[in-house]
Design brief:
Chain A: This is Stage II sporulation protein M. The structure holds two protein chains of two kinds. By secondary structure, chain A is mainly alpha-helical. Chain A has helices at about 5-30, 35-55, 65-80, 90-105, 110-130, 135-140, 150-160, 170-190, 195-215, 220-255, 260-295, 305-325, 325-335. The relative contact order of chain A is 0.11.
Amino acid sequence: MIVNLEKFVTEERVQWEKLEAILNKLAADHWYALTLEEARELERLYQRASADLARLATFSAEPEARHYLEGLVARGYAEVHGGKSESTRFRPWTWLAQTLPQTFRRRAKAFTFSLMVTMIGVIFGGLAVAFDQEAKEVIMPFGHLLGDPSERVAKEEAADAGQLDGRKASFSGELMTHNTKVTLTAASLGMSWGVGTLVIIFYNGVILGAVAVDYVLAGEIVFLLGWLLPHGIIEIPAILVGGQAGFVLAGALLGRGQNLRMAGRLRAVMPDVVTLCFGAAVMLVWAGIVEAFLSQYHEPVIPYWVKIAFGVIEGAGLLWYLRRAGRKTETTEARA
Amino acid sequence: MSAMAKNAGMGNAMAAAKGAERTHRFHVRTPEGVAFSYRLASPVLRLAALMVDWMTVTAAWMILATIIGLLSIVSRDIAGMVMAISYFLLSQGYRIAAEWLWRGQTIGKKVMRLRVVDERGLRLTFAQIALRNLLRAVDGLPFAYLVGGLAALFSRKAQRLGDLAAGTLVVWEPVEATPDLSTLQTGKYNSLRGHLPVVARLRQSVTPGEARAAWQALARRDTFEDAARVKLFAELAEHFRGITPMPPEAAEGVSDEQFVRNVVEVLYLERK
């Protein structure tokens, strides 16, 4: 018990203010790294403030000092027990070259599941259109896809090369933001135990299958490849990565075969989910640019083989990136 | 009313107050054995902060759109692209950036004195801030944050889905008003002064909430009706007298209101 509260508060306040000064310094700069001396001082002051709070807690009439000290101990606790803080600055290149592909591979099962759901959707959509052309009206989200593919191809090929002139960039911006929103929603819906993610990914597959079969049946395979490959080869995997993030989240919620509690499971997958979401967004930025500036131009403006070759190269690059990038550091970390 | 019933009534009131306090607080016990608590933010405060943030984004966008609009002098197309991307980044990234830079606060949260904290009391990570904001996409469904609102309503820690996934809480950090000690009319004879064991026991046993309630009762005494005032101070005095045995000269012959005044004085002022 404190015998002389006034004396106690007056004496200790000096130490509390020192602790507050260190905490303020850390709050002002996220990447501030304490020196060894400062870290020791922080721990000493935090321990002392904790002890003071325990002693002050026996007193009723010092709510202000107590609240002040509680706040200080809470902040000190966060710094002292916070574990490895993000003291190193974010390095975009390291994130792109190592973190993202490594995370993708670490969560490969969720991606495979996302791919399987899409493929089932593709088969469903393809069969629906193959056996019932009227299904297009229900499945297709965009009006321009409802008509006859051959008529559209003829129209597109006869169109003036400058049909998108003056709005290529803004069209690209709209595509990027719209696709990113949809993908992030698919990822977020992992919190519905994956049901929402499953629905979005499946429906995406249904549309893809319906469009593909519709153009294949009309004999417009080359146009289809030239139109979809340049941007689709990145856009579709990006949506799958969004689905992957959603399924990782759902897996943590379900917790099958895991001993951790739900909060612990969610905490464990959190960095990976965020990395996958941002990764999908980056991929969609690229896809948006390609779709607006390349995909919408057809023969005779751009030969189909050029577009298809571009798509194939992109696809090979993406495959290499996701499978191989960051392997070296991954192996080194695993050994360590 | 019998003394027992009065005590029961006072006890019930105190217990209800404590119960309510427990419901809206989240306690963290450190490895040092020290406990601190967070006051969980109410849905109304969170909604108000959301509105302030929405107004902030709208205002910022009006300014930004005007500036970007100047780009259309060079190219309307480029201006259109920058507009689309900028609005997306502003609307989606504002909260992430603000909560990261200002340790869990946006402008709306600053105004409403709210803060995002880690549910274990640890330092917030960027992943936590990003995830809780990315998941607004699902919390906002189907409209007006219905999913998030319902999740927070049924959650023990008032967490929307984004908070649940990120392991975060939104807490309220009110500024505690310093008691205006001049209302206590000090300087008069205090029957408790000189009885150090009684004073010590009172200081040890009376909770901050009880002390503040007694001080508030004194500060607002003139706003009560006579009968209500007499009843209130009788209940408070009864409660404080029941805390520790008192020598007769400390409690007898002193009106209930004066006794409460004496208790508050020794709690708040004796150390001065």
